[in-house]
Amino acid sequence: MNQDQIIDDLLAKYLANETDAHESSTISDWIVASEDNQKTFNHFKIIWNGAKYQQKVDVDAAWKKLTITKKKELKFVDNLDVKPIVKLN
After folding, report:
1. How far apart, in whole angstroms, are the C-alpha atoms of residue 47 and residue 41?
2. Average pLDDT over the chain, rounded to an integer
3. Of 7, 11, 25, 69, which is most buried by a Cβ count within 10 Å?
């Protein structure tokens, strides 16, 4: 595992409040070591916090709702009494 992957893993643990004292200290030291590290941490934090507010989707329920809606639309279209305006030869 390379250094970037180790930092990424530690950042995830840190943002999840799952680091021990040594790991928290390592991340804190890493963040203040450079402006790039601070930017990287801020990026991670924005993504992490945004992910917490993502709505969980019940895929099966959404699919069922979609298919029911489509069936209703198809029945509606089938029941229309529409005559063509122009007759094609």
Report:
1. 10
2. 79
3. 11
3-class SS letters over the chain: CCHHHHHHHHHHHHHCCCCCHHHHHHHHHHHHHCHHHHHHHHHHHHHHHHHHCCCCCCHHHHHHHHHHHHHHHHHHHHHCCCCCCCCCC
Residue 88 lies in a domain: no
CB 48 within 8 A of CB 15: yes
What's the pLDDT score for residue 60? 80
- Is 45 within 8 Å of 22 (Cβ atoms)? no
Pick out the chain residues at pLDDT < 50.
none
As for how many domains the chain has, the answer is 1
pLDDT of residue 37: 92
Residue 87 tokens read as: 């007759």
